[in-house]
Specification:
This protein is 30% helix and 31% strand. With 166 residues, it is α+β, with helices and mostly antiparallel strands. Helix 1 runs parallel beside helix 3. It is globular. Zinc ion (ZN) binds next to strand 1 and helix 1.
């Protein structure tokens, strides 16, 4: 088994869409960043990469590369998941904490949980999602995500299975 941890934060800015966990939420501001600013998917991506000691999201998708400007963060997550599978692991479960003052995550939690589970190819009950407000942190204009992920060795690495079929 392997454990991975990911952290990310982005600042709220007016005039852009708010994306969290691959879902677009109705809000007057979005999260600024070079890509679509999806703080949760970035933290999940880094947790997956960290679990297999791979280079982090900033090394694989450098903000200096114009290619990733406004990019859908699902691309980053898929690459991390591919590396996890190629290394012979699968996701056992994931637990995430989101810290933001607004909007309220409660009404969207099930949709985010479902989307993240779908992206990771795991059951919904393998994705924990908690949302908190930044009490006493003076972080009302930012969104923060912390994620831990547990990987387990796959019975048969994906690559080996593919080779046998040829
Ligand atoms: Zn980020």
């Amino acid at each position: 088994m392997r454990i991975g941890y990911g952290f990310d934060s982005h600042e709220f800015r007016p005039g852009i869409a708010l994306k969290i966990g691959g879902i677009t939420l109705a809000h007057d501001r979005g999260l600024g960043g070079h890509s679509d600013g999806d703080v949760l998917l970035h933290a999940i991506t880094d947790a997956l990469l960290g679990a297999i000691a791979a280079p982090d999201i900033g090394a694989l998708f450098p903000p200096s590369d114009a290619k990733w400007k406004g990019a859908d963060s699902v691309i980053f997550l898929r690459e991390a998941l591919k590396r996890v599978r190629d290394a012979g692991y699968g996701v056992a479960n994931l637990d995430a904490s989101l810290i933001l003052a607004a909007p309220k995550i409660g009404p969207h939690a099930a949709a985010i949980q479902t989307r993240v589970a779908e992206l990771l190819g795991v059951h919904c009950d393998c994705v924990g999602l908690k949302a908190k407000t930044p009490e006493g942190l003076n972080l009302d204009n930012a969104a923060v995500a912390h994620v831990v992920v547990l990987l387990e060795k796959s019975p048969k690495p994906r690559k080996a299975v593919r080779r046998k079929k040829k």
